[in-house]
């Protein structure tokens, strides 16, 4: 009986890990579809690039000045769309970041 319980627990644990990996792959595929060969920036990256605070980014989002994408509860921005935003303001992203 103890052997069967141990095997069952191990099998259940293994299946949970496979399920977790499958969910991670699904998220990665969603992210890949979203990118279309573009670079994604998170809040930290964009704050550093623009020299603004997270609150300023939130205001930009609220005023619909910049597009953003929510993936697993985190906010991301396409570098190409940020480049367009900056061009409207007469600025540009560093070459290493632009798509």
Labels describing this entry:
single chain; 99 residues; mainly alpha; Multidrug-efflux Transporter Regulator, Chain: A, Domain 2; 2 domains; 62% helix; HTH_17; Transcriptional regulator; DNA-bd_dom_put_sf
Write the layout of secondary structure elements.
Elements lengths: L1 H34 L4 E3 H8 L3 H9 L6 E3 L2 E5 H10 L11
Antiparallel strand pairs: 1-3, 2-3
InterPro entries: DNA-bd_dom_put_sf (IPR009061), HTH_17 (IPR041657)
Organism: Barnesiella viscericola DSM 18177
Protein name: Transcriptional regulator
Radius of gyration: 20 Å
Biggest sheet architecture = 3 strands, antiparallel
Q: How many domains make up the 3D coordinates?
A: 2
Strand-residue proportion: 5-15%
What is the topology, as strand order, of the major beta sheet? 1-3-2
CATH architecture designation of the largest domain: Orthogonal Bundle
What is the string of helix and strand elements?
HEHHEEH
Mean pLDDT, rounded to whole units? 84
Derived from helix and strand composition plus strand pairing, the structural class reads mainly alpha
Uncertain spans, ≥5 residues at pLDDT below 50? Answer: none
What is the CATH class of the largest domain? Mainly Alpha
Task: Provide a count of the helices.
Answer: 4
Coarse morphology: elongated
Number of strands: 3
Fraction of residues in helices? 55-70%
How far apart are the first and last residues' alpha carbons, in Å?
Answer: 59 Å
Under CATH, the topology of the largest domain is which? Multidrug-efflux Transporter Regulator, Chain: A, Domain 2
């Amino acid at each position: 009986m103890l052997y069967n319980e141990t095997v069952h627990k191990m099998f259940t644990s293994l299946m949970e890990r496979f399920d977790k990996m499958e969910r991670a792959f699904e998220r990665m595929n969603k992210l890949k579809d979203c990118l279309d060969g573009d670079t994604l920036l998170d809040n930290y990256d964009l704050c550093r690039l623009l020299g603004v605070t997270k609150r300023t980014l939130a205001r930009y989002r609220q005023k619909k000045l910049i597009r953003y994408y929510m993936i697993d509860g985190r906010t991301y921005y396409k570098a190409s769309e940020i480049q367009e935003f900056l061009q409207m303001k007469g600025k540009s992203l560093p070459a290493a970041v632009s798509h």
